[in-house]
Design brief:
By secondary structure, the protein is an all-alpha fold. It has 13 helices and no strands. It folds into 2 domains: about 1-75, no CATH class; about 90-310, MetI-like (MetI-like fold, Orthogonal Bundle). Helix 6 packs across helix 8 (about 175-210) and helix 9 runs antiparallel to helix 10.
Length: about 325
């Protein structure tokens, strides 16, 4: 098992380096000059050239790439071109809101979608099943920003139940934190829940048709135990796959959701950095996101091996 995990980790290293080179290349060919943005509308060519030299933007692309990769291997993600703060410090300052939003959205999705998919499969063809699948189709078809504005208009503007925007840390109290997390968590989690519910239903339907399920019913095992112990346990591999893929949905959705709800997280930092062409910050955010995604995929593969030992053979 340990050797299998080690092989998976070694296989991720070339992928990580490839992502790093691709990110650098895309930013290099991206239009816009950070020096011109820093100099402002009235900046002269001499000022722009001096800023480029000061920031090291005048160096050849290959030299900048080698320098950046060398610093990245030591844990140095560079310094922001605009704030002159270490990129690591800026990301750490924005980490708590993003983790709070992602965790709330994930918990909501798991607690809502998996039971919904299980019940829909158990009552296949019923009104509950058709309603669940209607929710899944509509939920996965609506863009996250559209859903966000619908929730804001309904629950904040019309009903005045929840605040429209902003973020309150958990240290300031659970109730204020929860009130500000409900809308963004719903906007981010409902789309993920729609996908997870459909996959859970399909996987459960396949398992419920197996012979061992009929044997369990013939032995008089209660329906609750058949669903939770026998059926759901054997249907977990596809569900775990979607849970892993959901991380990419959350990483992409966080950017839009934090922008709509004015949450000062990493997603909002990414948007601001793209608009200002703050290359070190953009590179660091993309690299960290890629690293998180690869770690989650590794954890999903380990979960596969634990659920089905044949996978690691």
């Amino acid at each position: 098992m340990l050797m299998w995990i080690a092989r998976r980790i070694l296989a991720s290293i070339p992928v990580f380096l490839g992502v790093a080179v691709a990110v650098f290349a895309l930013l290099y060919i991206m239009p816009g000059d950070p020096a011109a943005i820093i100099a402002g509308d009235n900046g002269s060519d001499e000022n722009i050239a001096a800023i480029r030299v000061q920031l090291g933007l005048d160096q050849p692309p290959l030299a900048r790439l080698v320098q950046w990769l060398g610093a990245l291997l030591t844990g140095d993600m560079g310094t922001s071109l605009f704030t002159q703060l270490p990129v690591t410090t800026m990301i750490v300052q924005r980490l708590a809101p993003t983790l709070s939003l992602a965790a709330c959205a994930m918990v909501f999705s798991l607690l809502f979608a998996i039971p919904l998919g299980v019940v829909a499969a158990w009552r296949s063809g019923s009104t509950i099943d058709r309603g669940a699948m209607l929710f899944a189709v509509i939920g996965f078809s609506i863009p996250s920003f559209v859903l966000a504005y619908v929730l804001i208009f309904t629950l904040s503007v019309e009903l005045r139940w929840l605040p429209v925007q902003g973020y309150i840390p958990l240290s300031a109290g659970f109730v204020p934190f929860a009130r500000h997390m409900v809308l963004p968590s719903l906007a981010l989690g409902l789309i993920y829940s729609a996908l997870l519910a459909r996959v859970t239903r399909a996987s459960m339907l396949e398992v419920l048709q197996q012979d061992f399920i009929r044997t369990a019913h013939a032995k008089g095992v209660p329906n609750r135990l058949v669903l939770l112990r026998h059926a759901l346990g054997n249907a977990m591999v596809p569900i775990v796959t979607v849970v892993g893929l959901g991380v990419s949905l959350l990483l992409g959705g966080v950017i839009v959701t934090e922008t709509v709800f004015a949450i000062p997280g990493i997603g909002r930092l990414t948007v601001d950095s793209i608009l200002r062409r703050d290359y070190p910050v953009i590179q660091a955010v993309v690299i960290i996101s890629s690293g998180v995604y690869m770690v989650v995929n590794l954890l999903v593969d380990i979960a596969y091996a634990l659920l089905d030992p044949r996978i690691r053979q």
